[in-house]
Specification:
6-stranded parallel beta sheet, about 350 residues, about 15% strand, 15 helices, 3-stranded antiparallel beta sheet, TIM Barrel, globular
Amino acid sequence: MKQDVLDALAGRYPKNIPSKETLLHPGIINAVAGFDLYDDTPRAYETAYRKLGIDIHQVLPSGNAPRPRVSGGTWEENGIRYADYGVFPTQMSVGNGPNLPVSAGGVFGYDTARDDFDPGVKAAALKQLNSAFRERFGELAVMYHLYYTTLFMWPIVTFGWEAFLAAAASDPERFDEMLWEPWAQISRKHFEMLAAMDEEVVFCHDDLAMSTGPVFRPSFYEKHIFPRYERIIEPVLKRGKKVVFVCDGNMDQFLERLLEMPFAAIMYESPATPYERIVDTWGKAGRGFIGGISTQILTGGTPEEVRSHTRAVIDRGRQYPGFIISSCGQLPGNIPMANIIAYFRTRNELGCPAELPAGST
């Protein structure tokens, strides 16, 4: 229920353990929906979200997903590589990829005005999503709509890692003036728009680290990134909304620092960021923490290993009010059916309700 999520984000123990999932697994959707999801994808998703007790999730698809072309495999077409590992095929460029600057000089020649936007146009589209979500789910769920480029992600998605790191390290002051500050202003503009939406929770994303840890010294983040966060998210805080900080990579080094900021919760990649460190920082502080479940174990473990892992995560996390269970990243279609059933059955047994068909294994 939405109220369980709001309670957890406010530091109150919820009635039931809330759940966030990005659901891409055709097998579990078909099992709980009781019909072929490719015949009516929106209705299948709606049924699955309700029966599986997923309290934070994306909007319903606007139409039917295409039937798998290479189920569980990949193919290439017109310079794009497609993968059929979920309900909808994923895609990425092959060959040379996007036309990105390849030198520090190219980075400094970039005009951030290209990234500006008309807030009226974007607000109208987002309000339509808000309205459709509330009409379908009312007080059942929180809409997961991610603002991806809070600040640190802007140069990564614009230039790629190599060019970004070279330019930011070679002339950090110039990078700050020409890129960080204009992008911070554009992101604040996004949050001014988000402040006018009906949703109570805002999700913003920045990958501050790789799986091995931060890519710059802490002093770099302290000078160029962290001081701008509060200014960026201020508009939604003034409206009383909860802000969830979403991040990949190993965030161990930044957990205490992020606690100093007005984020209601952190949604982190596991096991890149150690679960015990999350619990010992964000859990003990009474703040929200979303995650805990390793997709690697769901995919490569046995059903018993999945049950044991899920029990351990729930038993540890539920000691604190802000715990919201999630498989970090997503639930892709290559998770064995027995494992994903074991995952949801164990959740149901331990206080995160899920309705599964009798006899499913």
